[in-house]
Amino acid sequence: MCQELHEGLAWSTVPRYTFASPADSEEKDAKFAEEYLKKYYNLKAEGSHHSRMKISSPFTQKISEMQSFFGLEVTGKLDAETVEMMQLPRCGVSDVGEFSTFPGKPLWKSKDLTYRIVNYTPDMTKEDVDTAIEKAFKVWSDVTPLTFRRIFDTVADIEISFAEKVHNDFYPFDGQHGTLAHAFGPGNNIGGDAHFDEDETWTPGSNGYNLFLVAAHEFGHSLGLSHSSDANALMYPTYHYTDPKQFKLPQDDVNGIQSLYGAKQRPVEPTQPSTPSTCQNITFSAATTFRGEMLFFDEQKFWRKIPENTEVENHLIKTFWPSLPTGIQAAYEYLESDSVLLFKGAKYWVLSGYEVSKDSPKSIYLLGFSKTVKKVDAAVHDQETGKTYFFVEDTYWSYDEEKKRMDSDSPKKISVGFPGVGNKINAAFQTNGLLYLFNGHRQYEFSTEKKRVTRTLKYTSWLNC
Q1: Pairing mode, strands 378-382 and 362-363
Q2: Which catalytic residues are annotated (predicted)?
């Protein structure tokens, strides 16, 4: 008999909709929210459709529960921010708070577990798959008394396989960009097994989905952990990429797994990365590429990430550019002129190479903004389209760099041109053909070609912390 769905994991991308009218939009949002709450917050069918407009109802109660989990303002109302959070790529298992174990606290009686790789994905070499799986288990054996031994011929405690669509466990995969994988909690038969969707692209790097990261999360479920509301935890519901070379298991996950199996008997190196104080409570005010480097600004300083260096430099703005103001609010690089434009208030400065141009600052109204615009929140130049996007409050303006003028249909709502990223952007840049948009302490990888969020990432992922 197949185990309950709450004992498995399914990372999935929630479908998005384009609506024809406000009335249609509200109705479809409500229906979408009902399905979301049924799947992730156990909303009963009889307590949803007919009661969702009541002030106190199962529907509003579940909305409040969901808002609380994700740190949103708890209103019980299906507002825009709540709908946008529902539409983000996420895991398909119901949500719980902080680290959590499955109901009944199932765990393995033996601490010496076996695993078997049943088949391989053609996306990676067998050696890379073997390495990713081995390292994913090591994440957990480093902090517990558990050991994991690979076997080849007999049935193992944890069976690992790649499959597509229907694959004999009552939880079929749904094709590319949907469910990524699922796993089952400790137990007999299918218990502990982990299945990976072959329709996805599996890689050892940052393209596609990193097998090590997904497997490490899945094996947390195989060992008995459910989800965490800690956004930095490995067991957080949404997928985000972290360089496997830099990865160390966050403390929330350590606490969870050790609540089941105890700590490793011998001393181990700390599992929580020592985060420099400069990486705590950061909110970027601007970001841009710069001759292959990346710059991230806050009020007084900026971080400089050079690709060939493992360390991220941290400098005062005035040290590099004495004539620039502090508090840069937006920035973007325009490769055609080898320049970077930096914005504050109604003015902008141009960097030609490392020098501030002599005719800086200039008025932003020379670019075609209306007088109602008092400042630019973020900016990014899209190499694919040749357009520069300026984010202003909940709108964006599109600037044609070749024609040197704003597009006639500017401004537009951010929610129309960049669905799923929220209603305000405070920093942005483009690299490898994808946009990276920052909203508060959230970072979204966005494809302008597909017009959708492709990944959510840790806010400070570019700073190695």
Answers
A1: unpaired
A2: 218
C-alpha 232: how far from chain center = 10
> What Cα–Cα distance (Å) separates residue 106 from each residue in 21, 24, 156, 214, 237?
48, 44, 18, 21, 20
Tell me: is residue 177 an annotated ligand-binding position: no
Task: Give this prediction's pTM.
Answer: 0.51
Sign for the CA dihedral angle at 381, 387, 390, 395 comes to negative
Residue with tokens 């703005």: 317
User: Tens digit of pLDDT for each residue in 34-46?
Assistant: 988 887 788 886 5
Are residues 423 and 411 in contact, defined by beta-carbon separation less than 8 angstroms?
Answer: no
More confident: 311 or 134 = 134
Q: Are 199 and 209 contacting, i.e. CB atoms less than 8 angstroms apart? A: no
- The residue with tokens 């190479």 is 353
Q: Is 441 annotated as a binding residue?
A: no
* Residue type (1 letter), 66: M
Taking the alpha carbons of 138, 140, 145, 150 in that order, is the dihedral positive or negative? negative
Q: Does residue 191 have a known ligand-binding role? A: yes
> Do residues 405 and 368 lie in contact, with contact meaning Cβ atoms separated by under 8 Å?
yes
- CA–CA dist 203, 206 (Å, integer): 7
How many other C-beta atoms are found inside a 10 Å radius of the C-beta of residue 371?
7
Q: Enumerate residues 6+ apart whose C-beta is below 8 A from 316.
A: 300, 301
> Model confidence over 414-461: pLDDT tens digits?
999 999 998 999 999 999 889 999 988 888 999 988 899 998 888 888
Question: By three-state DSSP, how is residue 181 classified?
Answer: strand
Torsion sign over Cα 72, 421, 12, 208: negative
Q: Which residues are catalytic?
A: 218
Whole-number Å distance between alpha carbons of 421 and 446: 8
Length of the chain: 465
| 182 annotated among ligand-binding-site residues | yes
Cis peptide before 322 (omega within 30 of 0): no
Contact 145, 113 (CB under 8 A): no
